[in-house]
Amino acid sequence: MPIITRPPSPDHSPEDADALALKALGWVLTDDARAERLLALTGLTPDILRERLTDPVVLAAVLDFLANHEPDLMLAADALGVEPQVLLDAREHLVR
């Protein structure tokens, strides 16, 4: 049976957005070139990622990184089994 992931909605907790952003970060880090681009474009460092992994601002930066490069957004959504809009909605939950 396929897993169906629904977009975060007002009924979902912020933890849902956090979990999705962490999964997205994991996906980004599976590719060295993409990971380097994340660090270069966001100003994040490996130390910041380690120290502030659950910080909504850091997690939102990861989703912003994906949102600003549609090919990565599409690939990440596919890899995570969600619609691209779900990643964008999660970002909105994180910055509230």
Q: Briefly, what is this?
A:
The protein is built from six helices and no strands. Mean pLDDT is 88; it is low at 1-12.
List keywords for this structure.
disordered N terminus, 6 helices, mainly alpha, 96 residues, single chain, globular
Secondary structure elements and pairings:
Elements (H helix, E strand, L loop, with lengths): L13 H15 L3 H11 L3 H6 L4 H12 L2 H11 L3 H11 L2
H/I helix tally: 6
* Secondary structure category: mainly alpha
Q: Give the biggest sheet.
A: none
Task: Summarize the amount of helix as a percent range.
Answer: 55-70%
Instruction: Sum up the overall morphology in one term.
Output: globular
**Can you give the mean pLDDT?**
88
The secondary-structure element order is: HHHHHH
From the N-terminal CA to the C-terminal CA, the straight-line distance is 34 Å
Strand content: under 5%
Q: How many beta-strand runs?
A: 0
Q: From the alpha carbons, calculate the radius of gyration and give it in angstroms.
A: 13 Å
Task: Note poorly predicted spans.
Answer: 1-12
Q: Compute the number of structural domains.
A: 1
What does this structure look like?
The chain is an all-alpha fold and 96 residues long. It has one domain (20-94). Helices cover 69% and strands 0% of the residues. It has six helices and no strands. It has helices spanning 14-28, 32-42, 46-51, 56-67, 70-80, 84-94. α1 (14-28) packs across α5 (70-80). The longest helix is centred in the first third of the chain and has 15 residues, at 14-28. It is globular, with a radius of gyration of 13 Å. Mean pLDDT is 88; it is low at 1-12.
